[in-house]
């Protein structure tokens, strides 16, 4: 029996927002199209943030509209607030995610809002979504950022994460995600925090995690998450983005390496690994000054590589 795992590409959002180069619209469209054709089922194409602060994301609405023309692709966007959610709804995004930081200090610095204010924002977005015709509503998720620790506050208690998960679900998020924004997680904390949130809100209310490879534990963390029943994993092509706190460390877990691990183990991702590694050429050509990461692309697909299930 194969288990299917959704690999959600976040390089166009998390990766591109962390680099100085502003990727042009044509490159982004090429990237999205090539990944969708390689079988990637979900792509977070951008975010509806303040475009003055993050000009890299200024073409998000156009990208959503473009990505929606591609068959079988779930089009996701990140929204920091109600205003962003309205923009996402206007252009018809399939999924909207609002990041809510478990660290209150991080939340205040990042979006200038307390937990209570963010929960209120989630409630307001829910109201807007509920007013839409049933068939047109986007899937609404709240991603718990700094869920494993914060570069400002340091330790983030598990109780804080669990309580926030409860509050976000109660406020109308269909699901919460756990984000290792700072790369502080390890397989042990991945297990205990997923278990605790599952126990608090139900396993169907936490099915995805967002991992960074800042300290080299990205794939180990992904494996621990899979063992806890997680079925959606965010990843970034070429680990694009880097990390300002760890020179030489990639940003998100590398999509190519993750797909290689999953398919080798017999998980079904729907992704053609050879086609996926070719997408890298598009990104490299379009962003020649940026560093891409990943082991599989450098070492190549093993000779006679077969998915484990094929024997
Ligand atoms: Zn991230």
Structural description of this entry:
This protein has 311 residues and is an alpha/beta fold. The chain contains twelve helices and eight strands. The protein has an eight-stranded parallel beta barrel with strand order 1-2-3-4-5-6-7-8, surrounded by eight helices. Helix 8 (187-201) links the parallel strand 6 and strand 7. Helix 2 (25-37) packs antiparallel against helix 11, helix 7 (158-170) packs parallel to helix 8 (187-201) and helix 8 packs parallel to helix 9 (218-227). The structure holds zinc ion. Residues 14, 181, 210, 212, 252 line the site of zinc ion.
Oligomer, anyone?
Answer: single chain
| Share of helical residues | 40-55%
Radius of gyration, Cα only, in angstroms?
18 Å
Mean pLDDT: 94
Shape by Cα distribution? globular
Bound ions, cofactors and other small molecules, one mention each: zinc ion
* SSE order, one letter for each helix or strand: EHHEHEHEHHEHEHEHEHHH
Q: State the total count of DSSP E strands.
A: 8
**SS element count, helices:** 12
Poorly predicted runs of 5 or more residues: none
The class by helix and strand makeup works out as: alpha/beta
> Strands of the largest sheet, in order across it?
1-2-3-4-5-6-7-8
End-to-end distance: 13 Å
């Amino acid at each position: 029996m194969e288990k299917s795992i959704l690999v959600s590409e976040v390089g166009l959002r998390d990766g591109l927002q962390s680099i100085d180069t502003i990727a042009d619209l044509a490159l982004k469209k090429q990237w999205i199209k090539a990944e969708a054709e390689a079988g990637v089922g979900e792509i977070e194409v951008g975010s509806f943030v303040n475009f003055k602060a993050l000009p890299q994301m200024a073409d998000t609405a156009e990208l959503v509209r473009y990505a929606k023309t591609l068959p079988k692709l779930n089009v996701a966007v990140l929204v920091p607030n109600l205003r962003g959610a309205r923009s996402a709804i206007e252009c018809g995004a399939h999924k909207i995610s609002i990041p809510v930081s478990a660290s209150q200090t991080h939340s205040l610095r990042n979006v200038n809002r307390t937990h209570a204010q963010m929960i209120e924002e989630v409630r307001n977005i829910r109201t807007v979504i509920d007013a839409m015709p049933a068939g047109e509503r986007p899937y609404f998720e709240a991603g718990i950022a700094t869920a494993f620790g914060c570069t400002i506050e340091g330790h983030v208690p598990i109780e804080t994460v669990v309580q926030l998960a409860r509050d976000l679900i109660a406020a109308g998020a269909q699901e919460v995600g756990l984000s290792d924004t700072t790369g502080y997680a390890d397989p042990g904390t991945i297990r205990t925090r997923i278990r605790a949130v599952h126990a608090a809100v139900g396993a169907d209310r936490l099915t995805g995690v967002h991992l960074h490879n800042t300290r080299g534990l990205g794939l180990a963390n992904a494996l621990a998450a899979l063992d806890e029943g997680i079925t959606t994993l965010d990843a970034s092509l070429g680990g694009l983005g880097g990390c300002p706190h760890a020179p030489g460390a990639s940003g998100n877990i590398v999509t190519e390496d993750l797909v290689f691990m999953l398919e080798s183990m017999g998980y079904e991702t729907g992704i053609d690994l050879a086609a996926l590694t070719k997408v890298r050429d598009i990104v490299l050509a379009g962003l020649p000054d940026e560093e891409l990461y990943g082991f599989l692309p450098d070492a190549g697909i093993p000779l006679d590589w077969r998915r484990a299930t094929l024997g």
